[in-house]
Amino acid sequence: MRPLTETDIRTSFVNCSKGEAKRLDLPADLDATAWDDLDFLGWRDPGAPGRAYLVTEHANGLLGLSLRTVTGAARGFTSRSMCALCLTTHSGGGVVLMSARRTGGAGRQGNTVGQYFCSDLACSLYIRGIRDTTVGRTLEETLPTEEKIARTLRNLDAFIGRVTA
């Protein structure tokens, strides 16, 4: 992914108002981000634990999504869940349901689209082996990293399609 500026990020959001995009908290370490290791930029808002954001390069340029996370009881350590984007398996609270308000009239009526994602939105780092999960034993996959990246981007594109349809 190419390096992004604060302006790039704030102007990319399609499912929130300009005022909301202006007020959202950006990642604290944006200047130190290893852009070459990312397929999309995703982060949780430290000031609002129920909010997350995702910015990716899409067909018409940058596209940002404001996400809400479902808060509730954390699952047990022996329980495993899989991220719908990168297909990484996590234990406990490593995967959470995130919802995005749809764009257009559907979003104004309160319609959302939900999907289970890595709770830290670090899918790019998991598929590259840069970050490990707390499962203890990672499920081995025979796909090369490039194909895992392509699959993750296809899954993200499908989610974006449902949000923007």
Q: What would your notes on this structure say?
A:
The protein is of the alpha+beta class and 165 residues long. It has helices spanning 6-11, 18-23, 104-108, 123-127, 145-164; strands spanning 41-44, 51-58, 61-69, 80-82, 89-91, 95-101, 112-118. It is globular and about 45 Å long. The two termini are 25 Å apart. The mean pLDDT is 90.
Sheet/helix structural class: alpha+beta
* Rounded Rg: 15 Å
What strand order characterises the main sheet? 1-2-3-6-7
Distance between the termini: 25 Å
The major pleated sheet works out as:
5 strands, antiparallel
> Topology as H/E string?
HHEEEEEEHEHH
What is the share of helical residues? 25-40%
Uncertain segments are none
Total number of beta strands: 7
Can you tell me the overall shape? Answer: globular
So what's the oligomer here? single chain
Strand content: 15-25%
Mean pLDDT, rounded to whole units?
90
Q: Tally the helices: what do you get? A: 5
Quick overview of this protein structure:
The protein is an alpha+beta fold. Helix content is 25%, strand content 25%.
List keywords for this structure.
alpha+beta; 5-stranded antiparallel beta sheet; two-stranded antiparallel sheet; 5 helices; 7 strands
